[in-house]
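Supplementary Note 3. Input sequence used for the single-chain structure prediction.
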Amino acid sequence: MAKRKNKELMELAMDLGGEEAVEVIKALEKKKEATDEELAEVTEIRVNTVRKVLYLLYDQGLAEFKRIRDKETGWYYYYWHLDTKRLPEILRSKKMTELKKLKEMLEEETSEIYYWCGTPGHPKLTFDEAMEYEFQCPICGGMLMQYDNTQIVEELKQRIEALEIDLGLKKKPRKRK
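The predicted structure, written as discrete structure tokens, is reproduced below.
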């Protein structure tokens, strides 16, 4: 598997199921095909957790299985393998979802004026909410001042632009000499 594709797969696995998912994928890459019990043995992760990860990967379209019945016992065995053909599509979909969320956050940050007492962990309030509390912090009673969110707005704009460029929705700006 190409290095970039592998890195993207591992990042997606980390998002989906954490370290366990990364370990299961690494084991599947080595074995090519394995049962959940074999993967649990190789990774030293509980079989229930391995199954959970496999079903997460299956739901995302990153893992497939074939079911084989043991003629002697009548038991079914599931042999799992990675299927990364849909990886680019899955990553694009995740990025589009993230882009939508970032745009919503930007809209929220730019459409309201916020007030805050300045104490970390205390809430930022909209103008209407600040009026309800008579411009006093509902937690500490301190005076609410207008919150300067220009840095947050700039960071959101930069992240949106980077994602749009990455998705091919926008061209990369040329550097000036």
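Helices lie at 3-31, 36-43, 47-60, 87-111, 127-132, 150-166. The longest helix spans residues 3-31.
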